[in-house]
Amino acid sequence: MKWCPPKMPERKHPLAKCEECPLFEEPGPVLGMGPEGAVTVAVVGEAPGFQEATVGRPFVGPSGQVLNELLRNNGINRKDVWVTNAVACRPAQNATPTQEAIDACHPRLMAELVDHVPEYTLATGVVGAKALGLKGAMKTIRVGPPREIGLPHPTEDISTLVVPTWHPAAAMRPGGADLLPSMDFDISKIVKGTNSDAYVEPILTVIEDNETAQAAIADLWELPGPFAVDIETGIDKDDIDVHTDQRPLLCIGVGYEEGKVVVFGKSLMQNDDFLFNIAALFHEKPLTMHNGKSDVAGLIAAFKDLYPETINLKFDTMLEHYVLDERTGGHGLGVLGIELLGTPDWKSWTKPYLKKGAEKNFADIPLHLLYRYNAIDCDVTYKLHQRFWPELEKQGRIKAHDHLVRAANQLVYSEMGGIAFDLPYSKELHLELESGIEGVEQGMAYLADRPINPRSSQQLIKLFRDRGWYVPTGKERKPTTEAKAIKTALAEGRYDSAPEAKEFIAALFEARGLSKDDGTYVRGMQKRIHVDDDGVPRIHTTFTLHVTTTGRLSSKDPNLQNIKDKDYLRRQFIVAPGNIFLQGDYSQIEGRVIAVLSGDEYLQRLFLDTERDIFDELSIAMYGKLIKEKRRLLKTFFYGLSYGRTAHGIAKDPEFHMEVEDAQRQLDQFKELIPGVVEWQEQTWETVQEQGYLETTFGRRRHFPLITNRNKGEVRNEALAFVPQSTASDICLSAFIQLRPALEAYFNDAAQIRLTIHDAIVTEVKDDLVVPVRDLQAKIMETAGDWWAREQHSNVPFKVAFKSGTSWDQLD
């Protein structure tokens, strides 16, 4: 019998390598569409969706509607645009196309682009960008001017300018609407161009000797300011992580006029005469910094023994930008410089000198480069302030900026003070967690009937397959044992017929949780310890004012917010000998804010009678008598006011064991008691739909750039939560701003704020000063809330309750 070669699949496009593509059996192809001949703009997406595969045209579903709107906003008509995808066939379940699929379809994509020679190509999504040769996270690769890439024409040298941005579908996912302004900005680069060639480096004067430095400082005294100031610091060792004030200064830069910067060099950083005089200047003259809290800490540490006065941080360009654009991310100096001023990527200049896998040590950078780097930091800060401040004035947003700067000027002292750490207990906890992990893993091995490494995805996948258990798929349709995928499978009932699988998965999650606690919050914390001048080991967290859309404080390096509900982890944080923690918590602060803003008479009456328990009163009002068993449910109704808790969500809570209908009936009954709140919430929602944003009395705004039928519920809940959560946080922050210097004035080092978390302030105080410190803290915190209420023409009181202990876990 004559041998015949195997029949190859018929190609769906003559240039596509369909025989090499994992999507060959999937619906398609959906080829590009648009005008014939050359175009100004082409759009490259990822892959066809369900509707695209059904009708055979790209970008015709919901994501296509978002794309059309973005193009229209920038004066681009969809009819004039060539629209296509990185792969022409639809992956099952809209999975992310694999690299194999991208490579197989690449010749087809290039042929389409060569045929239409687009001046600009909008690469949407990571896959669309990858197909055009751009790799990396979208938040990184989208920054900067368009990138020129060559197109494979057989005889001509042709190219296109690629503008990467997120895929329109990302804007429709939960929380994704915040991407829209950035996507719109990216597309504007096609129409408006960029100013990538406009930036000119500042005129730099480097000063290394004290005599010249004193003359320069004298000249600066003659100028009104504000000065744009930036410092660079180094560290003594590469394997430690320390706060800015624990690093020696390498240089101080001052931008004193547009395009002019003086850098005081390393040789001056130990000169007491210079430090005294520059400190006096910085105390008197208004300063502009970017993320100034960090630099202020470094300056305070350098000046404290010579000139222990405050530093006049008046403006902060990071906070200016955050007030104008409250979305998370995108507030870094490097990104803003590149995108708004057209700077080069000067932050990348230092990378060859910063060791990977260790603390970045700027002391390893050659001084000439370090000074140039510092000068651009100052110059960009100066120019951003000139750009942002008029816009803040125009929008009436100065109040919000000044509030945040005042907070930054006080938070820096809590960061520098740190919180004491019980290292012996932490080491014991590590051993306990190791033992616990080992025990859970032994149980998993027993359930698996084989030795199993829960950290090995390959072993877990093999076990699941051997046992016939469902194996979830993740990115690129590959098997995965990621927690999110397994939890989704559990919710879908994939393991309902395999109770042993559920038992194994529960143990797996327990082992992972213990491992994370040990690695991140025990051993990880131990690596961050710094023994301060008082000989006490401490952890120095950094409070961030710019990373949440509600304005709530968060923290990093380490993130102490994530461990507030785990007592055995919080037990590591203690007081110094002879001290005690004093925590003041606002009682029902978000409910009080809602009562004030809504003007609801019933809710206000409940708060005005400070001798009565509001949940007892609610029980009597709803059920005709006091029913202690209903207290938890009533709290759920009450606290759910600020985040749209639904009857369905309440009924699903295993604590209540309720039918949805019963939960809805009681929730409706609760709302009947507070018609003012219900009306206020409806007015809030109408405001969102009419103007697209909300604004608090502190001047914070929250924008909602996309409201669709798919995300309406999510947006409504977020909108109803924003004002009470943000306002409550700012009331507490206002109290912090007043309390920190008051404690210093009255008690010096005997009472210091260690932490502030949403609606609470934790002070460490000497044992014999608990009563006067508590009284002062209560007065300032309650006055901050009462003052805000009076500003809203309300007399609802803001009460503070106190707890004390010698370790953080005792403050529950």
Q: Please give the CATH class of the largest domain.
A: Alpha Beta
Strand fraction? 5-15%
Tell the overall outline.
globular
Rg measurement, Å: 30 Å
Catalogue the unreliable spans.
1-7
Describe the structure.
The chain has 27 helices and 23 strands. It is of the alpha/beta class. It has 4 domains: 18-192, Uracil-DNA glycosylase-like domain (Uracil-DNA Glycosylase, subunit E), CATH 3.40.470; 203-418, Nucleotidyltransferase, domain 5, CATH 3.30.420; 423-531, Taq DNA Polymerase, Chain T, domain 4 (Up-down Bundle), CATH 1.20.1060.10; 548-600 and 692-812, Alpha-Beta Plaits (2-Layer Sandwich), CATH 3.30.70. A 6-stranded mixed sheet has the order 6-9-8-7-10-11, with helices on both faces. A 5-stranded mixed sheet has the order 2-1-3-5-4. A 4-stranded antiparallel sheet has the order 13-14-12-17, with no helix packed on it. The protein is globular, with a radius of gyration of 30 Å.
